[in-house]
């Protein structure tokens, strides 16, 4: 897989130019940062947790994807409670209980078609230079806004169709996994892509703390499954998760509405804006120099042509006279 991380690419380019020109002063901006162990320990390793505390976008994104991730792993405990064993509703065998997860995978596959459709629409408008395509929230978050209601629907669907008396056909609650898989993947992909777009150079730190948070939730939330389902029952255990998911569903909508303003007050986003402005000025200066060099070359070529023409015109004179 080709490298795409900008600091690495710039560092390689600077190294190549130093080798070609012999000029040791050609460096990438990122090479000017200290590379000591103290700097790595106090800045690089602490930056993800600093962003979690001080960056609203990182904090609320971590909350949302951690809940979705935790519910996914909680299902590995909840499905046997609902479908498997003598105390369950449907008395499935372990094999049958495992097959109940298939609709989650089907929903995840359906998500791919939505992503392809959205990307086609997005890149079409990028080519048309539509103003909204330059705003990170409008590029990424509509899919998360779509996925949230699907996740909420799946939880209420599972809870209220698997706890009726008499029991409904097991395929009815099992099919709720389709909407869960669809909503889960839409949320995860859209929110993580938004983190990358919003923080660019600092995206690795934002992604690191997001991965840490969702892994913690994925490990701890399933531990509460048995107690929660035995205390609240299947219906209200799923409904409790559904109500919590309903509350956090507003997060991507809030980012769409206020995300640009939030990024404007972010220390990291302000730093990125300064870097972009400086790079744009440098790029404009480089283009100006190239244009001036090209104009100088053109003037020299024009001068050679004019000089050659004057010399050739001497043939019109009769020097024998």
UniProtKB/TrEMBL annotation:
Ligase among keywords: no
Membrane topology: Multi-pass membrane protein
Keyword Endoplasmic reticulum: no
Any GO MF annotation of the entry: transmembrane transporter activity
Annotated region (Disordered), positions in chain: 277-321
Principal subcellular localization: membrane
Stretches with biased composition (Acidic residues): 312-321
Gene Ontology CC: plasma membrane
Protein's cellular compartments: Membrane
Transmembrane segments: 57-79, 99-121, 141-160, 172-195, 202-221, 233-256
Keywords: Membrane, Transmembrane, Transmembrane helix
Biased composition annotated in UniProt, kind: Basic and acidic residues: 277-303
Alphabetical list of Gene3D superfamilies matching this protein: MFS general substrate transporter like domains (1.20.1250.20)
Name this polypeptide is given: Putative polyamine transporter 3
Lineage of the species this protein comes from: Eukaryota, Fungi, Dikarya, Ascomycota, Pezizomycotina
């Amino acid at each position: 897989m080709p490298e795409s991380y900008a600091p690495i690419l710039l560092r390689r380019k600077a190294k190549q130019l130093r080798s070609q020109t012999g000029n040791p002063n050609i460096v990438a901006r990122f090479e000017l940062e200290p590379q000591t162990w103290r700097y790595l320990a106090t800045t690089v390793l602490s930056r993800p947790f600093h962003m979690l505390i001080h960056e609203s976008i990182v904090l609320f994104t971590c909350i949302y994807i951690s809940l979705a991730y935790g519910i996914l792993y909680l299902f590995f405990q909840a499905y046997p409670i609902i479908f498997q064993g003598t105390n369950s509703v449907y008395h499935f065998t372990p094999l049958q209980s495992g097959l109940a997860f298939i609709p989650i995978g089907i929903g995840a596959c359906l998500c791919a078609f939505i992503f392809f459709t959205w990307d086609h629409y997005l890149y079409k408008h990028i080519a048309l230079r539509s103003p909204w395509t330059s705003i990170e929230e409008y590029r990424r978050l509509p899919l998360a806004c779509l996925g949230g209601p699907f996740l909420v629907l799946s939880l209420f669907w599972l809870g209220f169709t698997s706890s009726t008396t008499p029991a409904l056909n097991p395929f009815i609650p099992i099919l709720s996994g389709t909407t869960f898989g669809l909503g889960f993947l839409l949320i995860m992909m859209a929110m993580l892509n938004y983190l990358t777009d919003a923080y660019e150079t600092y995206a690795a730190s934002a992604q690191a703390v997001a991965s840490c948070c969702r892994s913690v939730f994925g490990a701890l939330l399933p531990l509460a499954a048995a107690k929660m389902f035995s205390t609240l029952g299947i219906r209200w255990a799923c409904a409790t998760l559904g109500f919590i998911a309903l509350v956090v569903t507003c997060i991507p909508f809030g980012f769409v509405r206020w995300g640009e303003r939030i990024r404007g007050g972010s220390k990291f986003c302000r730093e990125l804006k300064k870097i972009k402005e400086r790079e744009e000025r440098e790029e404009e200066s480089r283009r100006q120099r190239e244009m001036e060099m090209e104009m100088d070359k053109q003037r020299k070529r024009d001068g050679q042509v004019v000089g050659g023409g004057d010399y050739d015109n001497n043939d019109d004179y009769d020097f024998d006279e």
